[in-house]
Design brief:
This protein is an alpha/beta fold and about 375 residues long. It folds into 2 domains: about 20-185, no CATH class; about 195-370, Rossmann fold (3-Layer(aba) Sandwich). It has 10 helices and 19 strands. The strands form 5 sheets. A 6-stranded mixed sheet has the order 3-1-10-7-8-9. Helix 7 runs parallel beside helix 8. The longest helix has 15 residues, at about 350-360. The protein is globular and about 70 Å long. The relative contact order is 0.11.
């Protein structure tokens, strides 16, 4: 018997019905109190039918939102022509990957556009955060005002484009999205900075993961001429300038590499140091290669994952225990360092000292994954 309700799939390269115009559209935010996946949100047409292009995806076969229901009552109306932007995330990595995944429509739409309107990941997204993230989006190609619909909103004319980029298996992006990024992202920001760059996580606030002994790694890399760069201390323009200037970049698997994928270039070489037992390094490498033709290697020298409690699996808040001697060998093989003096790897006392430090800052204990 044929399945009449097959599992939906997202094909980024399928350009059929990649965008649609909806007159008198309804932009519906998620339901208050529901913070799980498949939270109903998106776009309804004038007859209250769900517009499929407003579906957001975390993988080719896993959706983020489901069809919402229009609640009767008065609502604000936006007059003019707008583009639907999808789901608005506050986390920097998810924002530049998922929230900006429909920017490509700006080049596909003829005529003026009055703004880009999003639904929030969770209801009540603060206006202050919207304004902060708008500046980051403008550096990456946003050309119109950014709005977040914290309440159901009617839009006179709404262009609803298909998602063109995403996390994980969607990291290669669509051809239209890649073209947009290469034409617009960071184009007015000149390169400035050292040709050797290490993107550090050692000074991030609590509940942000990293690797144990990162300060020791930084000392070794500083001796090799690498700048130790803390992105959170700098403006988006300064970050872009540094990523454009660098020829050799070393980083753990983290969100700043998505930004390198937006503004980097084919003369760069990147080593991604795996900091958690997840597939994220592979997907980051895919973006860097497909978007910019960057030469990427992955240094998976993990010995163990240390997870904050409660927690059973590696995540963005876990810390990786890395074999520094194996990491040095990788850097030597690919020409990122020159000094062959052996790097001192972490012993049990070093590991315990760092675990004590991060346990205090995170106000929890850390347990090994294996």
């Amino acid at each position: 018997m044929q399945d009449t309700n097959p599992t939906p799939m997202l094909d980024l390269d399928d350009t059929r019905d990649a965008l649609t115009w909806v007159e008198n559209a309804y932009v519906i935010p998620p339901v208050p109190g529901n913070r799980g996946r498949e939270n109903p949100s998106g776009v309804l047409d004038e007859k209250q039918n769900f517009v499929p292009q407003s579906q957001s995806w975390v993988s080719p076969d896993r959706t983020v939102n489901s069809a919402p229901t229009l609640i009767s009552g008065d609502m604000p109306t936006l007059r003019g022509r707008y583009i639907f932007g999808g789901i608005f995330y506050g986390h920097f990595g998810h924002f530049i990957v998922e929230s900006l995944a429909r920017l490509w429509a700006q080049d596909a739409v003829e005529g003026p556009i009055d703004g880009m309107i999003f639904t929030p990941k969770n209801p009540g997204f603060p206006e202050k955060s919207v304004l902060q993230l708008q500046g980051r989006a403008q550096a990456l190609g946003l050309q119109v005002p950014l709005l977040v619909a914290n309440e159901p909103t009617r839009v006179e004319y709404l262009c609803v484009p298909k998602q063109g980029f995403g996390m994980g298996e969607l990291a290669g992006g669509s051809a239209a999205f890649r073209a947009f990024v290469n034409d617009h992202a960071g184009q007015d920001i000149p390169a400035k900075g050292n040709e050797k760059l290490y993107i550090s996580r050692s000074d991030l606030p609590p509940f942000r993961g990293s690797i144990l002994g990162e300060k020791r790694l930084e000392n070794y890399l500083s001796a090799e001429g690498f700048d130790i760069f803390h992105p959170q201390r700098h403006s988006i323009d300064a970050q872009i300038a540094r990523y454009k200037a660098a020829k050799l970049i070393i980083s753990t698997d983290c969100s700043p590499l998505h930004l390198v994928g937006y503004v980097g270039h084919s003369e760069q070489r990147v080593v991604i140091v795996t900091r958690r037992s997840m597939e994220i390094s592979d997907y980051l490498a895919q973006q860097l290669r497909v978007f910019k033709g960057i030469e990427v290697t992955i240094a998976n020298c993990l010995v163990n994952d240390w997870m904050p409690q409660p927690g059973r699996r590696p995540s963005r808040t876990s810390f990786g225990e890395v074999d520094l001697a194996a990491l040095q060998a990788h850097f030597l093989e690919y020409g990122f360092v020159e000094d062959t003096t052996p790097w001192e790897t972490l012993n049990e006392a070093d590991i315990q000292a760092d675990l004590d430090r991060i346990s205090a800052t995170h106000e929890t204990t850390f347990l090994p994954f294996k």
